[in-house]
Amino acid sequence: MFSIRNILLFIVFVAFLDHGACSAFNRSSFPPGFLFGVATAAYQYEGAPTEGGKGPSIWDTFTHSHPEKILDRSNGDVTEDFYHRYKEDLKNVKKMGMNTFRFSISWPRILPNGSLSGGIKKEGVDYYNSLINEVVANGLEPFVTLFHWDLPQALEDNIWVS
Question: How far lies 74's CA from each of 1, 26, 31, 110, in Å?
Answer without folding.
Answer: 9, 36, 40, 24
